Give the backbone structure.
Amino acid sequence: MSKSSTTMTDMIEEWLPNPHPGEILSEDFLKPMGLSQNALARAVDVPPRRINEIVQGKRAITADTDLRLSRYFGVSEGLFMALQNDYDLIKRRRQIADQLDRITPRAA
């Protein structure tokens, strides 16, 4: 019987989607509110290109953008940064999974 280091969490994570924060911004905030990218950009005082690139998944959420979006949408500061962090970690974990599997955790 072979011992596998793959956990159920690993298998589930492999199949779960990993949406970019821009997709969440678009699907959970802009569309339900009937808000255009340009209107949001004006409301939070950033260039429209910044919002467009975030929505297109071409730009990461920065602390500056997080603070502006959080204030505008009335959500906790750090929400959008947390989404970005989760996205980045899952994406990178998938990219280097084989390398991570070769690392033996050090016992405490």
The first helix runs from residue 8 to 15. The chain has seven helices and no strands. Residues 20-101 form a domain with the 434 Repressor (Amino-terminal Domain) fold (CATH 1.10.260.40). The mean pLDDT is 91.
